[in-house]
Amino acid sequence: QVYWPMIDHLRVQRESEETLQSLIAADAPHEMLLILFGLNARDYGRLRRTLSVNPSVGRPPEADEESSHRLWQAWSGRVDGEASGLLAPVDYLELHRETGVPMRAIWNLTQRWAQYGNRTGQIDDAAAQVGGDE
């Protein structure tokens, strides 16, 4: 009765660590890993060095319009009904692989959309009326 739950717990821990390492290898920003995993700055830096990830310098590049649209389509389909706009860590890796958008741009754009955007993609009534009264 104790053995199998312990084995399941260890499996989940290992998968979580593998996901964390994959996110770091994909150049995920510290803020993302702090929110998703509670990873402090010292451990973040240590893992980046361990995984030989080059240090990020300067502001991350923004995705071009086509990439942003691909990311919007993929993200909005996954976040449907989720109030915070956050996804599971594995979902961010899937977005990265699916769209080819850099992880830092994925984080910045999805956080911006979650905070300020209309996640349904529909035009609200006020905006429709303003556009329709011309």
Please, could you describe this protein's structure?
Helix content is 66%, strand content 0%. It has helices spanning 3-25, 30-37, 41-50, 65-79, 89-99, 103-116, 125-132. It is globular. The chain is built from 7 helices and no strands. It is mainly alpha-helical and 134 residues long.
Compact overview of the structure:
The chain is mostly helical.
Question: Can you tag this structure with a few keywords?
Answer:
7 helices, 134 residues, disordered C terminus, mainly alpha
Biggest beta-sheet profile: none
Strand content: under 5%
The total strand number stands at 0
Helices, by number, come to 7
Stretches where pLDDT is under 50 for at least 5 consecutive residues are: 121-134
Helix content: 55-70%
- What is the rounded Rg? 18 Å
Specify the overall morphology: globular
Secondary structure layout plus pairing:
Blueprint: H1 3-25, H2 30-37, H3 41-50, H4 65-79, H5 89-99, H6 103-116, H7 125-132
